[in-house]
């Protein structure tokens, strides 16, 4: 689960210096079958907010099979089987 952040600091902020603290969501996908919102965030990885809302849960944080994530930016769901796909812009460059 994400660290608790002060909403006053992050809500509505466009300050790029706050991105490492507040996050930078770049991809969103709503799962109509499970009513979950999936978020690809450049700083916090793959996140999910459940049907009751609340704080986003981290699903994939930093790597897969030893390959580190650098810049997650897109997410999609296969409606047939529920598989979640996400993209990582670069294995070299990072936003952080």
Automatic annotation (TrEMBL):
One annotated Gene Ontology cellular component of this protein: endomembrane system
UniProt-listed InterPro entries: 6-blade_b-propeller_TolB-like
Classification lineage: Eukaryota, Viridiplantae, Streptophyta, Embryophyta, Tracheophyta
Name of the protein in question: Protein STRICTOSIDINE SYNTHASE-LIKE 10-like
Domain of life: Eukaryota
GO terms of molecular function: hydrolase activity
């Amino acid at each position: 689960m994400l660290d608790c952040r002060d909403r006053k600091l992050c809500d509505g902020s466009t300050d790029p210096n706050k991105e490492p603290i507040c996050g930078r969501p770049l991809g969103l996908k709503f799962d109509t079958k499970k009513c979950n919102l999936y978020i690809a965030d450049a700083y916090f990885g793959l996140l999910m907010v459940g049907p009751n809302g609340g704080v986003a849960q981290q699903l994939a944080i930093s790597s897969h099979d030893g390959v580190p994530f650098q810049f997650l930016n897109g997410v999609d769901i296969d409606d047939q089987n529920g598989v979640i796909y996400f993209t990582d812009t670069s294995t070299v460059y990072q936003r952080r």
